[in-house]
Amino acid sequence: MEAREIVRSDPTEIGLGFAILAHRQLGHTERLIRAISRPQDRIVVHLDTKVGAPAIASFQNRLSDLPNVDVFSMVACRWGGHSIVEATLQALRRLLDHPFLYGSLLSGSDYPVRSIDDFATYLHQNHPQEYVLVTHEGLPGETPDNLSNRFSCYWPYERLVSSRRKRLSSIRLQGALGIDRKLPAGLLPTFGSQWFTLTRKAIETVVQGMLDPEIKGFFAWTAIPDEMEPHMLLRNSKYWGNRATDNLRYTATDENGRFPKLLTRADLPDILKSGAFFCRKIEHGEDGGLCDQLDDLRARSRGFEAAN
Has keyword Flavoprotein (predicted)? Predict the structure, then answer.
């Protein structure tokens, strides 16, 4: 894939790429797409095949007025499994068929906080930074067991339906048997948020790594690879040195501190204070008017800029 970058005098005219993974709440996903769509950008949307052919066809039809949007469905995704990485890979490959300076991986439950023109300007001004949130990076001997066992053990997420108790029993059994899988291709333990914004060249590097048979075969048996495989590939590249300290997204955890909580209008002050360009996690009809408020704030911001 030949790297193609767009350079224009007006940063708001820079073509961006968006890859969106969605599996439910398609009403909100459609609203997200319409909120971020600009003619110069490319938006690729992967719908989990479990959504079903009728719903997928209906979704495609509703977005037929946006020629820059490509909706497809190829992978049945399962939380924790490599199928999510496969869906990401296919979406990014389709995105790379079009020119863009930066590409963002979004969830169907995301929503823009600030305008995409502002986003493009920010990326242009800080180019070539890479925006990926990392929660741990280290050497094999320095990585906590609860992280290292995600790759050192075999995790049959795609092949076996089992409870958390059974999975933990499997880890203990593999430990007793001396199973200790080593990362391939010189990769180092690195973990973080699945959602990122990267330069085109960095995305090309990550995609090339995902296509490598050795890497793909190894991560097919890992736990939650979407939160480590791209990160390890990026860390093993020359683009790691350009990494920023966050991924430009606002997320709040639930009361147990484990999973993203659903955002509502009550979270708006914290969202705005964060300075993030996107927020998640939002469900259609459950946001208490948060999306309406964000739409209004973006519209007023555009009006102010136009007046000045």
Answer: no
Q: Among residues 114, 127, 125, which one has the least CA distance to residue 297?
A: 114
Q: Where are the domains of the chain?
A: 14-137+186-307
Pick the closest to residue 230 from 117, 91, 51, 111 (CA basis).
Answer: 91
For domain 14-137+186-307, give its CATH number from 1.10.10, 3.40.50, 1.10.150, 3.90.550.
3.90.550
**Reported pTM:** 0.92
The per-residue pLDDT for range 192-230, each reduced to its tens digit, is 999 999 999 999 999 999 999 999 999 999 999 999 999
Contact 63, 56 (CB under 8 A): no
Length of the chain: 308
Distance separating alpha carbons of residues 199 and 16, to the nearest angstrom: 10
